[in-house]
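For reproducibility, we list the full input for the erythose-4-phosphate complex.
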Amino acid sequence: MKFFIDTANVEAIRRFHERGMVDGVTTNPTLVAREGRDLRQIVTEIASFVKGPISLEVVSEDADKMVNDAQRMSGWIDNAAIKIPMTWEGLKAVRKLAEEGIKTNVTLVFSANQALLAAKAGATFVSPFIGRLDDVGHTGMQLIADVVQIYSNYGYDTEVIVASVRHPIHVYEAALIGADIATIPPTVMEKMVNHPLTDVGIKRFLDDSRKVQETKDGQ
Ligand code: E4P
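The corresponding predicted structure, in tokenized form, follows.
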């Protein structure tokens, strides 16, 4: 399973990259706005050490403008994946960009039919937003199971990015289903290492190690 990190904060990305947890990065306009910095500067910095796909989003609503934005943004770094919203205009842009060999990530996906359309248009990635579905009383993870099944039924190459991840159980359930990728916010990634029994175990071993006699030559 690939882990992308869902943030535009370069320090957080670096921290998890050093731990071997970053196969790619996803940003969106909200995450970029939170940093208060220039988008191009941010993605260029990220691309200096992350070699996997880095998603950055177009903000136009018209297909031709999306294509222009995507062409411009994909020239900034070698590993851009352009996030395109799930609309007919977006799909038209995805089709064009696929023909040009520009990677796309269809975002704001909330139904299996939308994911099917994205794959047919030639999207590289599709991002179903599971946390936002949970928020309105749906079962976000069921959508992931459905999309993974549908793509496997027909052999689509589009990779499923589990997005809008809110807690470690989302990652665990996505892994059980066999989703290609989870894009994980730093706060969630931080929690994934924790288990109270690990803490208790470390403390006990440390306490006991102080009782162990250690001689210089092991005699
Ligand atoms: C990732 O591609 C999405 O932009 C992100 O996961 C959305 O998460 P949110 O629903 O917490 O804003």
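DSSP finds eleven helices and eight strands in the chain. The chain has a mean pLDDT of 97. Both points were considered when choosing residues for closer inspection.
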